[in-house]
Specification:
The protein is mostly helical. Helices cover 74% and strands 0% of the residues. It has helices spanning 2-10, 14-31, 34-57, 94-130, 132-146, 150-159, 165-192, 195-202, 207-215, 220-243, 255-262, 271-305. The protein is elongated.
């Protein structure tokens, strides 16, 4: 009898299995589309370039060389070799700086979205599952947080502290988790009333197990594509912070600081702003293509399940 009870407690509920099945089906359906594969391949290529590119090119992104300042891209003028995309006002290689800026943007974007998803989902599931005054309090905190514009929050926090990558990630998480919390709460409210939750608790499963094993898998399908699109949004936000001077501080290159410096020389050295801007735009397009494919696949799969 005890063995049977333990076996039942370890068995996933049909709803949890369905949630995982929907999530897997969405990704499989999206992978079958040409646009998703193209976006994914380009995105992976950009990640590899941002990680390995600076080491392969072997050009310092921070070392000054004023004798080589404002060199045009070698793709247009071979005399500028090996500076593929030219140099900036201090003679630093623009392509290497842009790749490191891409690495920083991806790191901050992916990490902050992961933090938003974890924090928001945890708060939403706790609020929806337990309810009562604690759940109501958590939702009021969520509403209060959503009322604060992200840029105001960033200026307030980063303006009085050193804007390190960790501080920027924490600010972005603090600004973005409420959206995930609301979705997680609505899913939890729907699932907690179902028979499988009651049956799971009767056979001895703890509240933590019910939340993590049986309810959590149902949260992924509604917000998977939102999380991917949020990576693009956080990358833009990181660039904006750098542009207005409260992002990662020099000498570490970021898209925002490179573009901000290049605006002073846009008439005679247009490549300083164009190269990082183009690299950022290509990355955002790849993410949006993948997110759009996932959204269309999600709608198609959910209609099939219904």
């Amino acid at each position: 009898m005890l063995a049977s009870t333990e076996l039942s407690a370890r068995t996933d509920s049909p709803a949890a299995t369905r949630g995982r099945g929907i999530a897997a089906s969405i990704f499989v359906q999206a992978w079958r589309t040409t646009e998703f594969r193209i976006g994914f391949a380009l995105f992976c290529l950009l990640i590899i370039l941002s990680v390995l590119g600076p080491y392969i090119l072997n050009l310092s992104p921070t070392q000054f060389n004023v004798s080589k300042k404002f060199l045009p891209p070698a793709l247009l003028d071979l005399s500028s070799w090996p500076y593929l995309f030219g140099t900036d006002q201090l003679g630093r290689d623009l392509f290497t700086r842009s790749l490191i800026g891409l690495r920083n943007a991806l790191l901050i974007g992916i990490t902050s979205v992961a933090g938003m998803f974890i924090l928001g989902s945890a708060i939403g599931m706790i609020s929806g599952y337990f309810g009562g005054w604690a759940g109501l309090l958590l939702m009021r905190i969520t509403d209060a947080q959503m009322s604060i514009p992200a840029i105001i929050l960033a200026i307030t926090v980063l303006g009085v502290s050193r804007p390190t990558p960790l501080a920027i990630i924490l600010v972005l998480i603090l600004a973005g988790w409420p959206a995930y919390s609301r979705v997680a709460r609505s899913v939890t409210l729907s699932e907690r009333r179902k028979e499988y939750v009651r049956a799971t608790k009767i056979i001895g499963a703890s509240d933590a197990r019910v939340l993590l094993v049986h309810i959590a898998p149902n949260i992924l399908p509604p917000i998977a594509f939102v999380a991917i699109l949020d990576i693009a949004r956080m990358m833009i936000f990181e660039a904006v912070l750098g542009f207005i001077g409260i992002g990662i501080q020099p000498p570490t290159p970021t898209f925002g600081t490179i573009i901000a410096d290049g605006t002073k020389y846009i008439l005679n050295a247009w490549w300083i702003t164009t190269v990082p801007g183009l690299l950022l735009a290509i990355t955002l397009c790849c993410i949006n293509i993948m997110g759009g494919a996932l959204e269309r696949s999600r709608n198609k799969i959910l209609l099939g399940f219904e």
